[in-house]
């Protein structure tokens, strides 16, 4: 099949879930906020009834209008590259992917606006073309909420036909319901309407997964299906109150009392923290949330200064540990770290930014040049509803985090690096940094990646 061409439906075929409502909920919230999110959720019964009575085009156009009307085109593109891919990836049908990835020319068909799907399909699924509805954007760069197509299915059929003028697509994948006279499947030499299953175990073992999603910066941990979205909306007033109470106690209670902060945290400690009589240990950890460094101080039962970039005044107020400011000037930062280590222990997140996916980003190597007394610390967390907002004010990071009904952190202290694993043995700083990155990734069951802070900002900004 390596020379075959394939046209596959996105919803319900490449994605196991055929209902696109939750993805429009993500667009509504990430592009506009809670008001639009609430309006779209309140219309869900009407949208569901329209689907039941076969007014699918009307239901789709209603979702598109409510989710996108008045949104800047640039904001739609941001949500499409920084928010939606993770939720798509979680819903991928690996059986469909096996067939889709085995073909040479790959075309994805979606009834959703093409901008919502194109980036994911091309970057992570290797699609050559994406055909979907097209949003109308006015002269000022705002989405009108309308689409160019009157009959979406007929438009998709015509565009697939234009794409394959000389030869019909070899294979078409679609849902069993897609059998009317306007389905693109009629253009394909072979049609598959039924669920696809692996033929044998060997094919399963040889299956190459799609390109993973590394940078994910949605404010929701879970995809907002109608039931989940309703729970979130009900929880938000209580979450805001709870976050304010938690922030007050974080500011006033001693570090040892943090896990008992009205059920704020469940902290699971593993390993034995390294200690030194003369101080000067550098605790190097991966970066999951804004509370990572606070948890290390909690585990050590003493306040450990942290190296950090400029944060908001609210973060300064809430953090119960000293902050040593990064300037992003290498010589200045190196001297600053040396002075801080000469006075005692220090905490550093060499990734330079948070990563919510099961990856450890590339480490800055500067820390390995400054000290041989390095203690790796692996941090993982489980959140209830919310995580760091996309392109938000830094102070919102802490607020959204503390709004979660449950917060579970796992902190694993590993052994201090032996001298032969540091620069003292002649190893380069990059080798040492990569070694620490691998140790942390292996401990957490994550993957190492060569991508770093700058790559994240290219995706999320």
TrEMBL record:
TM ranges: 34-53, 229-256
Classification via InterPro entries: HAD_RAM2/GPAT1-8 (IPR056462), Plipid/glycerol_acylTrfase (IPR002123)
UniProt subcellular location: Membrane
Any GO CC annotation of this UniProt entry: membrane
GO biological process, one term: cutin biosynthetic process
Residues in Phospholipid/glycerol acyltransferase domain copies: 281-382
Record membrane topology: Multi-pass membrane protein
Keyword match Acyltransferase: yes
Entry's Gene Ontology molecular function annotations: glycerol-3-phosphate 2-O-acyltransferase activity; phosphatase activity
Alphabetized UniProt keyword annotations: Acyltransferase, Lipid biosynthesis, Lipid metabolism, Membrane, Phospholipid biosynthesis, Phospholipid metabolism, Transferase, Transmembrane, Transmembrane helix
PANTHER family: ANCIENT UBIQUITOUS PROTEIN, PHOSPHOLIPID_GLYCEROL ACYLTRANSFERASE DOMAIN-CONTAINING PROTEIN
Similarity comment: Belongs to the GPAT/DAPAT family.
Protein name: Phospholipid/glycerol acyltransferase domain-containing protein
Organism: Thlaspi arvense
């Amino acid at each position: 099949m390596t020379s075959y061409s394939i046209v596959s439906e996105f919803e319900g075929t490449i994605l196991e879930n055929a209902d696109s409502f939750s993805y429009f909920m993500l667009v509504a919230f990430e592009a506009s906020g809670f008001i639009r999110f609430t309006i779209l959720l309140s219309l869900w019964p009407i949208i569901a009834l329209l689907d039941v009575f076969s007014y699918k085009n009307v239901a789709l156009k209603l979702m598109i209008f409510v989710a996108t009307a008045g949104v800047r085109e640039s904001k739609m593109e941001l949500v499409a590259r920084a928010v939606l891919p993770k939720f798509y990836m979680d819903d991928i049908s690996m059986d469909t992917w096996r067939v889709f990835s085995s073909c040479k020319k790959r075309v994805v068909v979606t009834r959703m606006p093409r901008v919502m799907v194109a980036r994911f399909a091309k970057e992570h699924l290797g699609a050559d073309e994406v055909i979907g509805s097209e949003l109308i954007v006015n002269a000022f760069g705002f989405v009108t909420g309308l689409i160019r197509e009157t009959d979406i299915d007929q438009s998709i059929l015509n565009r697939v036909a234009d794409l394959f003028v000389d030869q019909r697509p070899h294979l078409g994948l679609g849902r069993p319901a897609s059998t009317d006279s306007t389905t693109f499947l009629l253009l394909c030499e072979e049609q598959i309407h039924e669920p696809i299953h692996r033929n044998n175990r060997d094919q399963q073992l040889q299956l190459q997964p799609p390109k993973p999603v590394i940078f994910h910066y949605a404010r929701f941990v879970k995809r907002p299906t109608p039931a989940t979205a309703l729970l979130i909306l009900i929880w938000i007033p209580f979450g805001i109150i709870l976050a304010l109470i938690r922030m007050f106690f974080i500011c006033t209670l001693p570090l040892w009392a943090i896990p008992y902060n009205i059920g704020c945290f469940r902290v699971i400690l593993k390993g034995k923290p390294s200690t030194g009589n003369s101080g000067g240990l550098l605790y190097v950890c991966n970066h999951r949330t804004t509370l990572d460094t606070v948890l290390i101080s909690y585990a050590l039962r003493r306040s450990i200064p942290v190296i950090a970039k400029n944060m908001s005044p609210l973060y300064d107020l809430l953090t119960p540990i000293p902050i040593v400011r990064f300037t992003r000037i290498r010589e200045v930062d190196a001297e600053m770290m040396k002075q801080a280590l000469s006075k005692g222990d220090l905490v550093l997140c060499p990734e330079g930014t948070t990563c919510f996916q099961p990856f450890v980003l590339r480490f800055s190597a500067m820390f390995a040049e400054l000290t041989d007394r390095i203690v790796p610390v692996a941090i993982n967390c489980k959140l209830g509803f919310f995580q760091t907002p996309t392109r938000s004010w830094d102070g919102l990071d802490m607020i959204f985090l503390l709004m979660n009904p449950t917060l579970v952190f796992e902190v694993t202290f590993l052994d201090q690096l032996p001298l032969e694993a540091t620069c003292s043995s002649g190893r380069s700083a990059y080798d040492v940094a990569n070694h620490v990155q691998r140790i942390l990734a292996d401990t957490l069951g994550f993957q190492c990646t060569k991508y770093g802070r700058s790559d994240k900002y290219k995706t999320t900004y």
